[in-house]
Amino acid sequence: MPRNAEVIRQWSILRDLESSRRVTIDQLARRTGVTTRTIRRDLEALQTSGFPLYDEVIDGKRYWTLEAKAFRRLDDTGFTLGELSALYFSRTLVECLAATPFQHDVASAFDKLAGALTPGMRRFLDQLPLVIQAKGVAAAEHAEYADTKWQRERMARLLDATLHQRRATMKYFSMSSAREKEYLIEPYRLIYSAGAMYLLAFVPEYKELRTFSLDRIRSVSLLEERFTPTEVPDAVFAHSLGVNEGPPERIEIAFEPRIAPYIRERQWHPSQTQTDRKDGGLLLTLDVCNDWALRSWILSFGPLARVLKPATLAGQIKDEIDRASARYAVE
């Protein structure tokens, strides 16, 4: 069984129990596509974690119910069990997006919310996969992302498909081909980076994971067909300065003295190391993939940055500079 598949199913069971007054094991088995024996094990595991589940016999049928008002401290917060669980589940995203002066306060607020959950419930929620991930800090000008009705609906559908492992069809405008195409996808994760939202999805047609910009998704339709996800790294795009996947390379860049203080005060990537140069400049070493995000970042420093290694990257940067220079040639 793929990692997290059991936890996702149990999360679905909790949501079904909360949205329904009562359900039978047979109903839960049909909705999740597993055997009744598996559902019984799931219910027992959830009870052991501290979720207030109980069964009762009505007209000869045994039903299961989730008692959402079971905890005094939960009542004190004013949240339902589902709301509180969802908040706790999203803490990684919110803490990542919070501006630095508020990070401590945000973490403290989530610790107080977590106090309304039992230790077993917290352990369960901590196992849930990151269906939403933030990479970097949100830019101020994009603070109102997903403010339109269609954006919110699109996000909700993709979250539903990701969390419940539902296949979907999607019409998408490709910038590379300059045309609209329809895809059958298996949504894995939503990633917020550089003021935009991206979808990481497996495309059966190509048998590979691909990244799609939500801004270029024209329509999304969810299917009843479920999929079994393959393993996905906890940190998507871990080796890129942008939103790309690829093997990391050792990159060495020499920065001129006048830009060195600016480079020193920032963390550009978790892999970075810095070495002061005798001339007052700085040598920055990164273990990242050679993609357009890296090359455009280096080019943004113009003559103040020089790639030392690898030679292939240095050649690519030189070619870009030569082509840019040619566009400004005096006729």
Shape: elongated
Number of strands: 12
Q: Roughly what percent helix?
A: 25-40%
What is the average per-residue confidence, as pLDDT, rounded to a whole number?
A: 81
CATH topology of the largest domain: SH3 type barrels
Cα gyration radius (Å): 24 Å
Number of separate structural domains: 4
Q: What pattern of helices and strands is seen along the backbone?
A: HHHEEHHHHHEHEEEEEEHEEHEH
Described by strand count, sense and barrel closure, the largest sheet is:
6 strands, mixed
Distance between the termini: 66 Å
In DSSP terms (H or I, runs of 4 or more residues), the helix count works out at 12
Topology:
Blueprint: H1 5-19, H2 25-32, H3 36-49, E1 53-58, E2 61-66, H4 72-77, H5 81-89, H6 91-97, H7 103-114, H8 119-126, E3 132-135, H9 149-163, E4 166-174, E5 179-193, E6 196-203, E7 208-213, E8 217-226, E9 249-255, H10 260-264, E10 273-276, E11 282-288, H11 292-299, E12 305-309, H12 311-327
Parallel strand pairs: 3-5
Antiparallel strand pairs: 1-2, 4-5, 4-8, 5-6, 6-7, 9-11, 9-12, 10-11
Helix pairs in contact: 2-3, 6-7
